[in-house]
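Encode chain A's predicted structure.
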Amino acid sequence: MSTEDFTETFTIDREPPLVYAAVTDPRAWWSSEIEGPTVHEGDEFAYHYEDQHRCRIRVEEAVPGRRVAWRVLENYFSAGADPQEWVDTTIEFDLTPTPTGTEVRFTHRGLVPRYECYENCSTSWRFYVTDSLRGLIETGTGKPNATGVPRAPVELRR
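Encoded structure for chain A:
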């Protein structure tokens, strides 16, 4: 693993199966505009936010209660020199049981500081993972983008 890959980790007092169910429901914590299945290996889904960001993602690994890994197949950013920066990167969720619940390790493998989008993307991921996903796990309610309405703080929007 590159030490440059964007990673966030938190521990939560919920069991791995509940955490896994939340991770595999990105409509509830990332964006309500996700189209397509998101649960099983081989599933492909599309994310978009207005004309600013679009991507197509395939579920590469889905190990209940343990791990989810997505591969970015296509990507487009409206701003920046390389609109395809995320292509062939992986978005990983590793779930490790702890005595009091679950450690969640999120890694966007390939999202590295040399990428033009790194600052905005890492700040947005931090919000969606440690605030929205965590909130979904703890309370049953995340903070996903709604149709045309971003939930990430205004300074994070491209």
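The chain has a mean pLDDT of 90.
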